[in-house]
Hints:
Elements: H1 13-44, H2 48-68, H3 74-96, H4 99-112, H5 114-125, H6 128-141, H7 145-158, H8 175-185, H9 188-220, H10 224-271, H11 280-299, H12 301-343
Amino acid sequence: MNKSSGNQFHIGITDFLWSVKLFAASAIVACILSIAVYVIMTVFAEPEPVSAVIAATASAAMAKVEVGARYISPMWSVFVFNTIAIFTASFGTGFFSYIHNIFSGEFSFRSKHPIYAAVSIKMDEMCTIIYRHIRHVAPMLDSDLSKIETIIITEKNAHSDEDTSSVWDFCGYTKQDYRMFAYLQSYIVPVLMLIVNGIILGILLAFFIFNGAMSGYENMGPQGMISGLFYTFSYFVFSILPHGIIELPVLFLAASLGYRFAYVQSKAIADENFFMGDDIESINRDVSRINSMTSEYLKSRYLWTVFGIAVMLLLIAAYIEIYVTPVVLKYAMSVVENVLNVGFA
């Protein structure tokens, strides 16, 4: 990694497309699974319980905005919570990297307190199966992760006859496990942000699709399923499109910033052999290097500029959502109703 490069945290089309693909995949999977559950419940029981669950999930997604609207206007409530979301995806990804300071401090504490170390090792060992699973699965998703295990295995073989103490002896996991965690850790925030939002959108879409088809079937029989589906899908699209055309790209932009930082940091961990040492001083030096990288990201003019532009766009989107979207939706649905009336006249 070239630390003198001022554009190492600049996002490109690949970073943006990564966000779009993860969000879309989460939405599609959530939609398909929700519809599948709905169909199963309809066949073997009644759809109402599942409908209530999906409706409750949709309601929960808007609960934070509704609570905020009790104290400030709906527009500002939408704006504030959306701003928090993109702040978390972009800046939060960097802040989360400081978790290594906590681990390095605990390593030092364990080495000085044997009883605490013994208890901690037992607790660590309870998660061993998770560590092993991540080590086997993660390299399939990112070939660079194989570097971590290869380098450590080579080092281990080279020093197999040496009887040396290591700070890792005070842990219930190995050096490989921690390096794998360090590599993946910075991706957690943007990934979760995109997956959660994608799942919410997918569940909402499933709710509209299935209930539209079922309503059409109940009112007009099998031929009514298409009209019911068309009506509810149109409602879903026009209730999101006016402001979503701004809001969603801003979310992808913020997640892309977090992803780019995660990419730069993880590649440094793999390529520059972070956390390869066996003493606390070596670990602290690597943590300092990560902190320096994180500080550079959080203080970068590029990050603040893009975030500032994103906030301005969210303010526009919030205004559209509260004052424009309802008007567009009302007009669009009147057109849809006319089309359906003509089609079934």
